[in-house]
Amino acid sequence: MKTDSRWITTPITADLLRGALDLERTEHGVLPHRLPARARAQCGDPQLAMVESQPSGVRLAFRTRATAVELDTLPTKRLYVGAPARSEGVYDLLVDGTLAGQGSVSGGTVQVVDMSTGSMELRPGPVGTLRFTGLPGREKTVEIWLPHNETTELVALRTDAPLAVAPDPGREVWLHHGSSISHGSDAASPTAIWPALAAALAGVELVNLGLGGSALLDPFTARAVRDTPADLISLKLGINVVNADLMRLRAFGPAVHGFLDTVREGHPTTPLLVVSPILCPMHEDTPGPTAMDLSALGAGRITFVATGDPAERASGKLTLNVVRDELSRIVAQRAAEDPHLHYLDGRALYGEADAAELPLPDGLHPDAATHRRIGERFAGLAFADGGAFAGCGGAFAGCGGERRAGEGRAVGR
């Protein structure tokens, strides 16, 4: 317990958070969620529970003259038996929008996963403290972006001067849904995941519903998108459906239509961009499921392999090329009556030439340099003249997004 009289403790409330859709009170403090409680109650998948509670794109935001900030958190970290230990989750400190520091929190709960047996064990650990000092003494906006790859319970926030909720920045809100690549996969830090990079370049506020392994066209996710205030929406679909070998072509098309129908119930004229998968050589013409390469794991490396049979495409099994063709067809069909619906081939973000220069290290996920490239490409393609979000972001306004009556610009509150 802190007894230093210079510290001011401020309760962590939803008003201090951006990018979260729900805030759960826990034994230790509060836990940000990226799916609402009703959605979480409709699916007992441990993978979904893990990734939606990892606060990718979630940040604390406040105004203060403080020169020192402390944040107590209880992280949950993953350890794969036989694989090298994962790096500590990174917290990014932004002062008036500029990266001003980074840190990590030691300790916390460890989730031990044995891929050879499928077993999982939780090892409890202590609360840790993140500390930033030497901040400028002027009035400023401080943001602390939480680790994109660690479940993070927020326990206490302390500053050496009073703080207030950061005002609405007045920027357009971009809501993005996708897979582990959108979640952040192997990015270096939370502001270096490709959606955060693209949002910063475009001058928009990000709500990131990238859900590792869980972009599966679930109706509860569609309803979460439907019910979240947004000016711009993008949906990066397809790779997880192939990874999980979840459905055949007969089911995939109607599921995409249903997902889009639900989103349009809440956002009838909002610019809506459907993005197909980036290039992933193992699954271009080979169906899933995707599996961890246990022989590589035995050598201390994590890599993935496609285990399906290309001949099974004839029976409706999905590959990335099949998914792209179907998404393109569906968007073209619907765009005849929905002028605000657009399509982007994911290979424009990362294609064959990129794979030759920057191959996916584990066969599935991009590294830090590739996240930057994808973020820069997306910002250029989506927000440029002729792009789905042309005229939006930065100082631009009036791009066609609409909120329901009574909705404000609050992000994830």
Structural account:
The chain has 11 helices and 21 strands. A hairpin with a 4-residue loop joins strand 9 (109-114) and strand 10 (119-123). It is of the alpha+beta class.
Gist?
With 413 residues, the protein is of the alpha+beta class.
Largest sheet: 6 strands, mixed
Shape: globular
SS-based structural class? Answer: alpha+beta
Which band does the percent of strand residues land in?
Answer: 25-35%
Number of strands: 21
Would you tell me the overall average pLDDT?
92
| Straight-line N-to-C gap | 29 Å
- What's the number of helices? 11
List keywords for this structure.
single chain, 413 residues, alpha+beta, six-stranded mixed sheet, six-stranded antiparallel sheet, 11 helices, 21 strands, disordered C terminus
Write the layout of secondary structure elements.
Elements: E1 8-10, E2 17-18, E3 22-25, E4 30-33, H1 37-41, H2 46-52, E5 59-64, E6 69-80, E7 91-95, E8 98-103, E9 109-114, E10 119-123, E11 128-132, E12 140-145, E13 151-159, E14 163-165, E15 173-178, H3 180-183, H4 194-202, E16 205-210, H5 219-227, E17 232-236, H6 239-243, H7 249-266, E18 272-275, E19 290-292, H8 294-298, E20 304-306, H9 320-335, E21 341-344, H10 352-357, H11 368-383
Parallel strand pairs: 6-9, 15-16, 15-17, 17-18, 18-21
Antiparallel strand pairs: 1-13, 2-5, 3-4, 5-12, 5-14, 6-11, 6-13, 7-8, 7-12, 9-10, 19-20
Helix pairs in contact: 4-11, 5-7, 7-9
